Amino acid sequence: MADTASEWEPPALLVAVDLVILTLRGSVFHVLLVERGIEPFQGRQALPGGFLNHEGEDLFDAALRELKEEADLDGSRFHLEQLGAYGAPGRDPRGRVLSVAYLAITPALPEPVAGTDAAGASWTPVEQVLSGSVPLAFDHLQIVSDAVERARSKLEHTPLATAFCGATFTIAELQRVYEAVWDVRMDERNFYRKVQRVPGFIEPAGSNRAVTRGRPARMFRAGPATALLPPITRPEVPSRPEEVE
Amino acid sequence: MADTASEWEPPALLVAVDLVILTLRGSVFHVLLVERGIEPFQGRQALPGGFLNHEGEDLFDAALRELKEEADLDGSRFHLEQLGAYGAPGRDPRGRVLSVAYLAITPALPEPVAGTDAAGASWTPVEQVLSGSVPLAFDHLQIVSDAVERARSKLEHTPLATAFCGATFTIAELQRVYEAVWDVRMDERNFYRKVQRVPGFIEPAGSNRAVTRGRPARMFRAGPATALLPPITRPEVPSRPEEVE
DNA sequence: TGAATAGTGTCTATGAGACATTATCTT
DNA sequence: AAGATAATGTCTCATAGACACTATTCA
């Protein structure tokens, strides 16, 4: 934002906020999509979102508002972070629109949003979206892809996995988050001790116990750590030579 | 970007692109700043940047253009990635401006940009900026802080360190990057073998050798890897209890 | 009692870090 | 030869992963 010598007037752009809301439903990684009711891309699945409300609205606040309006979710209760700005010239047929994407992580919810303003919203398995079997509007596939990559990466070094869980959770539940998001399987016994060894990751929550079929599990809550040291490392996937090289 | 029922018209915003250009100069981590010639914040140091040129300009292209205009650097030759959007309502006294920040990494350059359009540009030690001894305009301190954090983090898992080096480099030079950006000291001998063990990180570049005082070093170039497996881990800093907890 | 899930013990191979040693150049 | 930097060797300790085993509940 340095000074320029000319008196030339820069163009103003429409700014939208789009949301990638990720959650686990029955051990399957899901993203929230809405069906578009108007052109362009009418009938297609798209990310929830909308335009900035007024000039004084903060981007983060706009994301919170859209979260409430379109998904009936109270964003102040869970993880919400900015993903990035998407501004390719041709991304919106109506004209130049800059979209700022946000990534939200929510615990598993009892039912998809229903009976609310967010009528057309539905949880869709991430796998289906990434594989292309659910065509998305605009450049939303790219945005979802970036969001998933961000989430996968942050599971390693941050306590993000706890954002997929409720206020308290068992270690097995936490493991299901890692397995679903990473699409891997991990040894329960090693996972058990590993996560407990990371300082500040999780801490015991009373001696409450969950109702299951076998031995009841201890409950934990998210700890104060903002980074995981040592990190939770992603298992090697030797069957698929990819990513590196 | 779902449909809304109302006929309400969303406001349009000015969109700027700001650049955090990082480099190493004499083993010290630097950021490029320019002195503002006009209000607001006249005389203060600021990030190079400017408004989007026209409606059809891509964000990335705008970053490349500003890189050329304000710093006389050819961005196509080095690392450039988006950092994020900054849109707090009060960040620009002139009115609502949304800024999309980019992070650029360049090899050490012979001299600060001089005799060009980027006259007021100067390399400033990152440490001075982060400590607050160089006051910045707007929310640019926050942006620099985020950029440095991004760079520090990416050194661990990506070959980003090679972006600080020239086309070919010695392992000792690569180590200086890690040490300057992380502000740590590492064992040269362990570093030497560690970086070579990461598949695709670096590869031998001829049997060329650099001119130094002692035994000439082998030259390397960046390999094809986009991720480092295993990662280059940041040394523990036991003297300062921070970050975690 | 058996099935199911939770939690502990133990072994081993690998890798990180500490640090001695050797190699190859300039002056 | 001295000094300097590059490269290799070796040791030790910690830990990740594999997997046997014990514990505690419900049906």
Largest sheet of chain A: 7 strands, mixed
CATH class call of the largest domain in chain A: Alpha Beta
Per DSSP, the total helix count of chain A is 5
**% residues in beta strands of chain A:** 25-35%
Give me the CATH superfamily of the largest domain in chain A. Nucleoside Triphosphate Pyrophosphohydrolase
Q: How are helices and strands ordered from N to C of chain A?
A: EEEEHEEEHHHHEE
**Could you say which structural class the secondary elements and strand pairing of chain A correspond to?**
alpha+beta
Describe the structure.
2 copies of one chain form a homodimer. The first copy, chain A, is α+β, with helices and mostly antiparallel strands and 245 residues long. Chain A has 2 domains: 14-154, Nucleoside Triphosphate Pyrophosphohydrolase, CATH 3.90.79.10; 158-222, Arc Repressor Mutant, subunit A (Orthogonal Bundle). Chain A contains 5 helices and 9 strands, in the order ββββαβββααααββ. In chain A, strands 1, 2, 3, 4, 5, 6 and 7 form a 7-stranded mixed beta sheet that branches. The first copy, chain A, has a two-stranded antiparallel sheet with strand order 8-9. The longest helix of chain A has 18 residues, at 140-157. The relative contact order of chain A is 0.15. At the A-B interface, strand 1, strand 4, strand 5 and strand 6 of A face strand 1, strand 4, strand 5 and strand 6 of B. Chain B binds a DNA duplex (27 and 27 nucleotides) through helix 5.
